[in-house]
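Researcher: For the record, we're logging two predictions in this thread. I'll number them. Prediction 1 follows.
Model: Prediction 1, sequence and structure:
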Amino acid sequence: MYEGEIAIGPVHATMLEPHRLRLFIEDEIVKDAELTIGVNHRGVERLMEGLPVEKACILCEKICGICSHIHLWSAARVVEIGCKIEVPERANHIRLIVEELERLHSHTLLFGHAFEILGHETMSMRSFMLREPIMQLFFEISGNRVHYSCPIIGGVRPRCNISDSQIPVILDRIEKYEEGLTKLINRTLNDPMIVSRVKNIGILDRKTAAKFHAVGPTARGSNIKSDVRKMGYVPEYDPYEFDEILLDGGDVLSRVAVRFYECFESIKIIKQAINMLKDCKDNRIYNPNYELHKFKPIDCYTEAQRGEQYYSYGLDDEGQVRQAKVRTPTATNLGAMEEIVKGYHVSDAELIIASCDPCFTCTDRLMVLKEPFKK
């Protein structure tokens, strides 16, 4: 029997971002694994310390390119909660529309990436073709495809105000997206070759998911309720009706399928938001009448595409950020994936890791200080 180690990374074709995965094997079965992150260490929390809060918010948007909106929205929500800043109703609807469009493009990106790891280039390209009109919507709404810079403290930027002429375009795009996604799902779930590669692979049971504090679709694929939008942490979602998708398979198929079905819920939310936008009597998208004041670090939770996202910071007397803390969902999901990769074939290892939709660069943001920051 052969016993040895296979080292993957820090640059590997199956992953979009650098990481290092060591697989300790017997023949071709993984007996143990060690996943190392931090290759893209950037120290964002340290850079936030002492910045004016407006600049800190813009910096937070750069933490991730795939989920840039939710980072900026989270950063803005902290100061809005701490300073009790009222956000106009119309601005909240626009923020929410952009966030759910971002969830669509993020989930569809994972579909394409998962098919690529499986070696199914045709389905991978179909996923990216399905995603492209959503990316174009971002450009038409904000002028950018990646960093939209939509939320600002007290509302949204004027350039992101969704006009009456843009509403039919958005509705048409998501209708076509829904049709294309339905075809993609039917093709995927009826393809025995694809299903055989993802079903009963990388099983994450409820106990292990709870132990490692798995969040988002990763936890919901193991039948654990984890959507903070449904828990009251994001009151902007309270007027909307949508379901929390739960599956109990716990395998790669379940984690991907949760995202498939969540896309339909996002479409449902977008349609409701557009109707509310039409009926909104207050056309303000920004509240300039606010004052920043000192507050101690407070907690803010949002539901990013990969799961629960945590932001915390306070402001000093000069309106500068202090004690910034950001926790992204990948940080805990990766621990669960490292555990469950054991016992599976080497060829399944990267697929299992990828099934939690990891964002390594999003997670590599910390910097440990030996002494307090000095201005």
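Researcher: Logged. Prediction 2.
Model: Prediction 2, sequence and structure:
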Amino acid sequence: MDDRQMVLCKIEKALCRYNKFVANQFSMRQLPRAPSRDVKNIKRWHQGHDNRAIDEHEHSYLDQEDLICLSRKDKTPLRQMIDSSLRLRTLSIWRDTSRPSMGDSGHVSYFSDKKMNAFVSMMIVLIGTAMLIIPIWILERQDDLEQKLIVITIFIFAFLVVLSSVMVTKPFEALGATAA
């Protein structure tokens, strides 16, 4: 192999590595940012360990804007509300007693996502069912056609608002579900 072919071979390998790097960077940029709540929890955990878990100068990674979330779970707005409220998310009904605290001096409590998600699903089903059945009973009691139209309009609008605010849906999906 002459010098020119060796140089071309090296260039080809370098370009291949560069292309992989660019593709990885592109796919990483598509990942969502780390939720600020998670970053705060990590900072709190470091503080709970007197900032000695890693070297102090290495904590600066938590102050950067480019932290990403590798495993994202879409949560309904109702579930997000529970998660954002310290009082709601630490209710004893969510506690996971199968996981003991792991040497963190009792400062760590585990809560069951399964229980929280089941509660949220149950609430969505109950609210949705009520939004479908209540207007039927109201309409049965109404004699005036105009009043029936008002009841139908109010409940369709309320159903759309509730559906948009309690479930993880895009606006056109909520509108389609409401139309159905």
